[in-house]
Amino acid sequence: MRAVREPSRPSQTHQGIEWLTNFRPGDTETAKQLLDSLHIVSETTFRQGLLEHLGLVLAGAASMKKPAALYGVRSCKPTDTMFINNVSPLVSGGDGGGSELIVQNIIRAVERSSDTSVVTRNTMTIDLLQARCARSLVFVSDYAGSGEESLAYARAWLRNATIRSWRSLKLVRLHLVLFAATTTGLQRIRASGLYDGVSVLHPGMDFASAQWDTGELLRIRKLCEDYARRPEDSAGWAGSEGLLVFEHTVPNNLPSVLRQTKGRTRRPDGKWAPFFEHRTAPPGLMRALVEYRPERDAELGLRGMGRVQLTKSGKLHVRHRGSIRDLVEVLRHISKGHRHPEQLATDVAVPVPMARDLLLQAQTLGLVDSQTRLTDAGWKELRAAKAKPRVVVSRLQGSQGPYYPGTLRESR
User: Fold this and answer.
1) Res. 384: pLDDT tops 70
2) pLDDT band for position 164 (cuts 50, 70, 90)
3) Prior bond of 67 cis (ω within 30°)
4) Disulfide engineering: 355 pairs with which of 208, 345, 373, 385, CB 3.0-4.6 Å?
5) Which run of H or of E encompasses 47?
6) Which helix (H) or strand (E) holds 197?
7) What is the pLDDT of residues 333-357, one digit of tens each?
8) Which long-range contacts (CB under 8 A, 24 or more apart) does 158-161 make?
9) According to the model, what pLDDT value does residue 353 have?
10) Which residues contact 411 (CB under 8 A, 6 or more apart)?
11) Which of 24-38, 113-127, 389-403 has the lowest mean pLDDT?
12) Is 89 within 8 Å of 124 (Cβ atoms)?
């Protein structure tokens, strides 16, 4: 049987070793920690993941009114108005590279495989939207780093008076479907109120979701600022602090020290050794790194919870592996007020569908209620998981004879 190749760590590649020479000896470990925290997603994983996620959203979202019209998110100017002055959406693109074309291919595949009562195809004009009674406008994108592109696209649609009127009358809803999103980007999109529904397969993959303690986070941010060619871009576009890289593209929300070709290097020759050159990666580097993601330390997720073999309610066997570990960790985050599946997915570092499955499992076990609040049984499980088991180091040997103390304590 052919062995499965494990991706190299970024710091172990030729480019990674050279890139680390840009930094002072005291900063090398911090730079290595940043580099090895990247997530490298293959084009196949991206295609399959977004295709399946979009299909599930169309089939299962309660707020998704049918039929739906699908569009790929693209860049819009601040003054663009959809269907006005030659501004029109793109639908069902052809073959090609780049995220935008891949998204268009995914949309075309979903349109072809879906019933016309669920998805309407090639609705390129507002008249077609009206004639086909589209009830949902579903915008699809690979990634929301800062979130600005998805927000600008929605604004371009809502500047159209007819679309704005339809939405005001609740005749149409706006939905956004994403493969991935940073914590900051997702928060901006949700807080904007421009979308009636936002669904993301992989939230996080950024500084906020990395398993760094406070000191490590501060050191990494300082490193990005100290060595950036332009300090204002040190944390990536709009300060979104992304750590996700696609095989087909390098997002601009990565810290600039990972993308720049010139910087404040400490190399003797004075030349910056780049890791990614602008927004591209050498093919050899991607072959070595594709599907790499940082190892997740279960001990960090369960820090302070202790380890138990059997909880007091007798339902859960908690060990540092498997879905039960994730289930207990989900309960811990629910106790802190985190109730949305996407938020829990980021907390536990699992895909959103798995987070939903864990919530369903918790509900089936009676650990959370329909409002995603801990029940008495859930609190009991969580208290039991936090309590460290009593360890007995020795046992007294039983004796039938009388006991006499060997010494007496002095009186006070």
Assistant:
1) yes
2) very high
3) yes
4) 345
5) helix 43-60
6) strand 197-203
7) 888 888 777 777 767 767 777 777 7
8) 158/194, 159/80, 159/81, 159/82, 159/84, 160/81, 160/82, 160/83, 160/84, 160/126
9) 74
10) none
11) 389-403
12) yes
Q: What is the pLDDT of residues 357-382, one digit of tens each?
A: 788 888 888 888 888 888 988 888 88
- Please compute the mean of the pLDDT values over residues 227-254 and round it to a whole number: 93
Rounded CA gap, 288 and 236, in Å?
Answer: 24
* Residue given tokens 């529904």 in the structure block: 197
pLDDT at 120 over 70: yes
> Is the CB of residue 323 less than 8 Å from the CB of residue 364?
no
Residue 72, C-beta contacts closer than 8 angstroms, at least 6 positions apart: 89, 90, 91, 93, 100, 103, 104, 107, 139, 140, 141
- Band of residue 402 on the pLDDT scale cut at 50, 70, 90: low
- What single string gives the DSSP state of each residue in 129-195? HHHTT--EEEEEEEEESSSHHHHHHHHHHHTSHHHHHHHHTTS-EEEEEEEEE-HHHHHHHHHH---
Element (H, E) at 102: helix 99-113
What gap in Å lies between CA 241 and CA 238, rounded to an integer? Answer: 8
DSSP 277: B
3-state SS class at 282: coil
Please report the pLDDT score of residue 80 as a whole number: 96
DSSP 201: E
Look at strands 197-203 and 136-144 and give their pairing: unpaired
Distance CA 370, CA 137 (A): 29
Residue 10: cis peptide before it, omega within 30 degrees of 0: no
| Among 305, 326, 327, residue whose Cα is nearest residue 378 | 327
Bridge-partner residues for 176, per DSSP? 139, 198
340 Cβ neighbours under 8 A, 6+ residues apart: none
Determine the longest span between alpha carbons in the chain, in angstroms. 102
Q: Which two tokens stand for residue 106?
A: 């995914």
Q: Which amino acid is at 93?
A: G
Neighbours of 150 (CB within 10 A): 26
Based on DSSP, count helices (H) and strands (E) in the chain, helices before strands.
16, 7
Residue 320 in tokens: 């540092």
Length of the chain: 412
Q: How far apart are CA 297 and CA 115, in angstroms?
A: 44
